[in-house]
Structure formats: structure tokens, C-alpha cells
Amino acid sequence: MSVAFRRDGDEEHLEPRFELPVPSGPNLVTAHGAAQIAAKVAELEAALADITEEEARKAARRLLRYWRSRQATARLAPVPDGAVVAFGCTVTLRLNGREQVLTIVGHDEADPAAGRIAFSAPLARAMMGAEPGEVLPFGGKPGALAVLSITPG
User: In sequence order, what are the residues at sequence separation of 6 or more whose Cβ sits closer than 8 angstroms to the Cβ of residue 80?
Assistant: First the structure.
């Protein structure tokens, strides 16, 4: 029989499960972010004991490997002084005429809908090092971004 028609099982045709992608660059965290990562690891470790279904166990172990690696590589960023926009600051800004308040945080604690953006986001990178009152280009538009105030983390 031709090899093309032979099939040992469905497993050989499943897509491989890769590890969760880890953001490139340093794993900077705020104190709050470090606590969130530790809580996630503890939650997954506790949940793993109760999972009996094999696929669910594999998925939980995969998540746990991700969060343990994030915990092991986390670097607590220094608390900013608020003189310039830096990691951990909360910034009140005007972007294209609309006022917003954003906090610059690590990748794992970023939640744009809640006003927390990763330090590697284009908007965060555009503001880094800016002082209150500074007007900056953003999105190819000169003067699109104005830093109104900075609150240290």
C-alpha cells in the first residue's frame, strides 16, 4: 500500500503547539506588574492540581512556563521622579486634540483599554524623555502630541 494512503492516527496531522511568544527586549516591570506576575504563577500552580483532562493540563503547563519565565526575567524598573516621561509614569496628554491619561508599564501589565500602555508602544516611545508642556510629532504629524503633565509612579 502506498504511504500516501496509510495513516496511523489523527495525532500526526495536528498542528504543533509552540510556546507562547515572549516580547523582545528587556522585561521591565513596575512593582504592581511584578505582583501581578507572581499572582498569575500562584494561580496557575494551584489550578494545575485540579485539572484532570490531558489537553487542559498541557495548556495550563504551557501558560505556567510562560509566566514562570516572565517572573524569572522580570527587572523592577526604578521609580521615576516625574521630571520627564519615563517607565512607570502616568502622563496626561493631548493627542490630535483629545486629552488622555496613560500609564507607561511593562508588556505583561499593559491594558490600553484601562489606560496602561507598554513602554515599547509607539506612543510611549514618542513621549519618553519629554517634559510637561512639550509638543511632539506623532504619526507623521508635527505637533500631534502634547505632554500636559507627568505623575511619577
Answer: 86, 87, 88, 89, 152, 153
CA 119 – CA 97 distance, rounded (Å): 22
What is the tens place of the pLDDT at every residue in 131-141? 999 999 999 99
Residue 17's alpha-carbon distances to 7, 14, 55, 140, 143, in angstroms, are: 21, 9, 11, 39, 45
- Say how far apart CA 74 and CA 32 lie, in whole Å: 12
DSSP string computed for 57-103:
HHHHHHHHHHHHHHHHH-EEPPPP-SSS--TT-EEEEEETTEEEEEE
Residue 52 C-alpha cell reads as 484532570
C-alpha grid cell, residue 89? 509614569
Burial class of residue 63, CB neighbours in 10 A (0-12, 13-18, 19+): middle
The three cell numbers of residue 116 are 496602561
How far apart, in whole angstroms, are the C-alpha atoms of residue 151 and residue 104? Answer: 11
Q: pTM for the complete prediction?
A: 0.81
- In angstroms, the CA 115 to CA 9 distance is 48
